[in-house]
Amino acid sequence: MPLKDDWQLKALCRGNHAYLFFPPSTFERKEERERREMKAKAICGVCPVKAECYEHAVAIREPFGIWGGLTEVERRTITLVN
Q1: pLDDT per position as a tens digit, 53-77
Q2: What is the dihedral angle through the alpha carbons of 11, 34, 57, 22, rounded to the nearest 10 degrees?
Q3: Per the domain annotation, does 1 fall within a domain?
């Protein structure tokens, strides 16, 4: 029987480009943030577990980062609408 979170093992955000999915601890200009988020979303776009990732982020109310191809603001907007 598969583990509940075994989808994370298949996530394309794991590894060398994980930094793209969360803001840096230092100041980030708007253009830099937009570029970083665009790269992260491109990875999400071809990820085989994008839906599971999004569902997990919503279920735990993840306040940071890009999950399931959406930023925290985009996730919050969707959950408020639904």
Answers
A1: 999 999 999 999 999 999 999 998 8
A2: 70
A3: no
